[in-house]
Amino acid sequence: MLQDFINLFFPHYCLTCQEILVKGETLICTVCFLDLPPTTCHQEPENIVAQRLAGRLPISHAMALYKFRKSGKVQCLLHHLKYGNKPLIGKVLGRRFGALFKEAHGGATLDLIIPVPLHSSKLRKRGYNQSDFFAQGIAEVLHIPWSNQHLKRATKAVTQTKMSKLERFKSVENAFVATNISSLHNKHILLVDDVMTTGATLEACGLVLLAAGIKELSVATIAVTTSSY
Ligand SMILES: [Zn+2]
What we know:
This protein is of the alpha/beta class and 229 residues long. The chain is 39% helix and 16% strand.
């Protein structure tokens, strides 16, 4: 009741349309949530994410939740998630992903969720890793653990926006290292990131995890770019 009273005087607004949120809504209103452009990844094994990684990584399940469009609501949410100090949006979207994953692959045997890490200097500056929160949301729904103690970013990220596909791969090729390797052995890992463009980051992380002895790899992202990059 106190929270209702507080909300009356200090309402929360939807991050994408600025309407006042009602009870049960977190950061984004129901209308906007339903308006986010879904992918068909959960129904189609040969989806856009799987196709983009084909021949580069052996993947069991590859899924992105939404299509990333320039100036769209997904881009707006991701901007808040990464730069607007709104990490909880990652958790909200993670829960949505988890629910869809459960529907599609109910009995899938995932053992551990690992988010793509940020370099420690970036983590200090931002205060959090947005992909950790996406991992947490998924973990909550699927009842499996997540860990940010198994993959480290050894080199600083450089902005990939204007790079070619090859340049992107080169920039992350040796950027990641696996840690606590003994506990990765023989596990089915779900690697998660915020956006997939060329897949260079997922590929680099996936190769490191496979080299560390995991049994199986799946990948999940909040969004995937659908136009040329
Ligand atoms: Zn809204």
